Amino acid sequence: MTANIKIYGSVQGVFFRRSAKEIADKLGLTGWVRNASDGSVEIMAVGPKDRLDKFVVWCKKGPPLAEVDKVEIDWVKKEESFDGFEIIS
User: Fold this and answer.
1) Is residue 85 part of a domain?
2) For the segment 2-54, what is each residue's pLDDT rounded down to a tens digit?
């Protein structure tokens, strides 16, 4: 399953991307995370639904310095194919 996630709030410049990669790696998810031009963080995460659910719970809180206002999730049954989880620009 694939989760397209968009996180709004004070989420750039607070190690959100690096922390998201660490959590995704621990959960065995693949995909990517990037800063969006509108100040949000975008994530495409692929893996089993139960692990994605745990990742989404983390996204709603984020790393210690983040202030998450809103999280939008678009669930897609089709799985994209990635070798790992990357931080992209």
Assistant:
1) no
2) 999 999 999 999 999 999 999 999 999 999 999 999 999 999 999 999 999 99
Q: Can 4 be counted among the known catalytic residues?
A: no
Strand, coil or helix: 27: helix
Name the helix (H) or strand (E) containing 35.
strand 30-35
Instruction: Specify whether 17 is catalytic.
Output: yes
6 to 35, 43, 82: CA distances (angstroms): 10, 6, 19
pLDDT in tens, 47-63: 999 999 999 999 999 99
Question: Would you say residue 43 lies in a domain?
Answer: yes
Question: Pick the catalytic residue: 4, 18, 34, 35?
Answer: 35
